Amino acid sequence: MSNSNGTLLEVKDLRTYFDTDDGLVKAVDGISFQLKRGETLGIVGESGSGKSVTNLSIIRLIPSPPGKIVSGEVVFNGQDLLLLSAEAVRKIRGRRIAMIFQDPMTSLNPYMKISRQLMEMTELHLGHTRAQAYEHAIKMLDTVGIPDARARVDNYPHEFSGGMRQRVMIAMALSCEPELLIADEPTTALDVTIQAQILELIKELKQSTGTSVILITHDLGVVAGMTDHVIVMYAGKVFEQARTKELFAKPGNPYTKGLLRSVPDPTAEQGKLYQIPGLPPDVAHLKPGCPFAPRCDRVQDICRNEFPPLVQLNDDHASLCHFAREVYVESGGTPAT
Amino acid sequence: MEEHPRPPTDESVDQITTHEPAFHVSPEMAVAGVDSPTEFVRGTSLWKDAWRRLLKNKLAVFGLVVVVLITLASVLGPTIIKSAFGFTPDYIPSNDVKLIKSFPPFTGPNGEFSWTHPMGTDNAGRDQLARVLQGGQISLFVGIIATLVSLVIGVSYGAIAGYVGGRVDDLMMRFVDVLYSLPYVIVVIVLLSMFRSQTPRGQLILLFVSLGSVSWLTMARIVRGQVLSLKNQEFVLAARATGVSTARIIFRHLVPNTLGPVIVYATLTIPQIMLTEAFLSYLGFGVQAPLASWGSLAADGIQNIAIFPWQLIFPGVTMALTLFSLNFLGDGLRDALDPQMRTV
User: Which of A262, B24, B54, B182 is the most buried (most CB within 10 A)?
Assistant: First the structure.
């Protein structure tokens, strides 16, 4: 099953557009990345930068119309998911690629018992009988740290707290031992103490099952602690892509730098918090130049007129900026030639 | 808070961090502060909750009791009368019982007090009580069957239209609009007279079909509206992301979520259809003698209202009582299943 280079998922030049009354919205516009087996990829970006659409595109859940995957390839285990029939994709969803959603309060069906929702997965994909599926559901709840799983499994979602529901979602996502887990802002709707537990849980389950993870978030702290690689998205494009450590230490893009500066430093003196000026652009009406230009602190004329190139700073580090090398050098990096 | 007792340990359970490999949460942690591990997880289900709210509503309970009693009486009544007095609803006594065959209530053949006919008899001397009970059987049956037809067709139709959306939805709902615009009593009358059946039983089946076929329209609209608002919820996306098929999402995930309004509307459809049936029987299109329904009994009774008022009063009052009760029950169910709608 495994490819020789260990690549599980390769996204090439993915473009997903939405045809709205306001014009064509290029929500995802030419995204490419690779995910190796057992690795965790972080996707960061502001709201509306295309993070979620990228991942919904991967498992072909873009609402259509108005959404449409215009071009690109999503090669999962050597198979382009975009070319498969709807039926074939359905067999992959949940079985080999599972997803965890942002809001655990709404992503469980309020009218179904937890057990039924968990059993549905394994009955569908693993061909379990009712009894097998039931036992498996209990085992999964146990795995995600729900105490007294046997008694809780027949509860309804409203009898669980937010953190517990997210645990149930994780149990559901992992019940068929998928090869890829996509976690779309899994902790955004939870309070901080629970956030840490959920992240810890994902991390541990990842290590014990060898699942690859795509973690979508706008929390840089989460990315730093959880991921091997990071993609920074802005206006539907990849702005920077690097190993996590490298990206945090030596960012090669002014946007990434701005993001990193925006993280409050608890040890610093009380003062004004930094923020990137302006708002994310309206992706329906992008101007020809760099989409970040109006907010960038080192903007030049060229930025306003020409779309920036993707500069390869080293084997594992690329940045979409006219001045990627300069920024990289400023942060202390040495660009490869 | 009182209605949804939360397990007191919810928060503490969450605070169990998974420092050590996540695979085990020790039993002491699991039951932190609680004596029995199974005790604290017993919450109330939606249905139990709704049932409790229903029982608090006096009118609804009254409705429920009356409906159950009338149903039981209709189902068992004729059999009991048969074994007690020895006649069936369509039993016509022999002709030698004088000229006036319609006895007033509690009156025997010679004008004396008698328990034999508590509601009197009709023109042919048939026992009115037995007739009313048998009529109840048919009236309730028509109401329930036609409502079930409307449930099956309406719910699936509306759910499919709502979930699939787009052009399919447009086409399906325009078709409903067209049917809506036809005056349905006339449609039913046309259906009934076109396919007029020779046997009373055939006519009855025809009545079910024609009432059912026009009664699903509103149900389809209600369900479609519900599904439209539900289908964009995250749990549907989550279900799709786990590879659940479209049919399963519609019928296992969405339809149960619409059940509240559906039950309420179905309960309110039963009296509506019973009324229509009575109306049709009254016009002579519904149930044919010797079968009886409340409508046909009333139609017979009204011809002699000046001389034999009991022929109209008993079926009329029974029917009114049933319809009232069903409506109270329906209103009660609506309040119970959708407490936010309540205007108390």
Answer: B54
